[in-house]
């Protein structure tokens, strides 16, 4: 029986970012979940605090629902979805057969990229959000290898105030992507098998972050040459091959 898969997207994305990879993986629909982070596609739920721990708890719930029907799952994440996926594997290893993350990993020495630091700063973050326009975001995503149709779909969602508000809350709960005082320290490396898949030319989370984590923990690292932060959409065939090799070896 096929192992269920849970895919978690990052910022500023939606489940659309997974389409190129899912087409290559050909997993079918029976044991597959590709949810949107709350507030990123639909309205931010009432009383949903949108902090990193609240999103992690939400993801645990998504995993539990799959496990109830299919048994332990393979969880895959990109960007913030990678951080949340890894956190689920840390908190609830009994739910997980394996975890795989792309272009983000919980690292005690990472200090966040420039935009993360802007979003973490009150007033400056709000100003950035107010001045950002969907057209510019679409062009920026496309320039970094995201297929044009997905880039425009993702950028159109930027009009949602709830999405922009959720992103600011999320980044501020993590002090602009710093985990040295909590997630990177309070639990050891996940006990279930893991894999890192990284676009070599990521301008936001340098390849050295993945290399450092791999060397420290023994987690295998696959580097996708010629790809950037969105390797999952820019080089989906190579990413799919890496995931299949990882899963087949379990």
Give the C-alpha Rg: 17 Å
Q: Please give the share of residues in helix.
A: 40-55%
CATH topology name, in short, is Rossmann fold
Lateral strand order in the biggest sheet: 2-1-3-4-5-6
Q: Based on helices, strands and strand pairing, what is the structural class?
A: alpha/beta
- The CATH homology group name: Alpha/Beta hydrolase fold, catalytic domain
What is the CATH C-level name? Alpha Beta
Our measurement of the CA-to-CA distance between the termini, rounded to an integer number of angstroms, reads 14 Å
User: How many strands, what sense, and barrel or not for the largest sheet?
Assistant: 6 strands, parallel
Low-pLDDT stretches are none
Number of domains: 1
In the CATH hierarchy, the architecture is: 3-Layer(aba) Sandwich
What number is the mean pLDDT?
95
| Total beta strands | 6
Strand content: 5-15%
Taken in chain order, the helices and strands follow as EHEHEHEHHHHHEHEHH
Total of helices:
11
Report on the structure:
The chain is an alpha/beta fold and 250 residues long. It has one domain (5-248): Rossmann fold. Helix content is 45%, strand content 12%. The chain has eleven helices and six strands. It has a six-stranded parallel beta sheet, sandwiched between helices. Strand 5, helix 9 and strand 6 form a beta-alpha-beta unit. The longest helix has 19 residues, at 52-70. It is globular.
């Amino acid at each position: 029986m096929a192992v269920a898969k849970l895919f978690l997207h990052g910022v500023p994305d939606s489940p659309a970012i997974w389409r190129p990879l899912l087409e290559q993986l050909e997993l079918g629909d029976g044991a597959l979940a590709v949810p949107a982070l709350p507030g990123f596609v639909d309205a931010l739920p009432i009383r949903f605090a949108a902090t990193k721990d609240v999103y992690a708890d939400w993801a645990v719930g998504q995993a539990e629902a799959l496990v109830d029907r299919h048994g332990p799952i393979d969880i895959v994440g990109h960007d913030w979805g990678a951080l949340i996926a890894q956190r689920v594997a840390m908190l609830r290893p009994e739910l997980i057969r394996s975890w795989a993350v792309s272009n983000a990993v919980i690292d005690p020495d990472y200090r966040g990229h420039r935009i993360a630091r802007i979003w973490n700063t009150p007033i400056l973050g709000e100003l950035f959000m107010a001045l950002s326009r969907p057209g510019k975001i679409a062009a920026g995503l496309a320039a970094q290898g995201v297929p044009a149709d997905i880039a425009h779909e993702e950028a159109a969602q930027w009009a949602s105030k709830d999405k922009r508000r959720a992103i600011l809350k999320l980044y501020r709960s993590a002090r602009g992507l710093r985990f040295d005082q909590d997630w990177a320290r309070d639990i050891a490396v996940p006990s279930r098998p893991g894999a890192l898949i990284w676009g070599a030319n990521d301008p936001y989370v340098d390849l050295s972050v993945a290399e450092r984590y791999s060397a420290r923990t023994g987690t295998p690292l696959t580097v996708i040459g010629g790809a950037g932060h969105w390797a999952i959409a820019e080089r989906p065939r190579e990413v799919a091959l890496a995931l299949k090799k990882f899963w087949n070896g379990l």
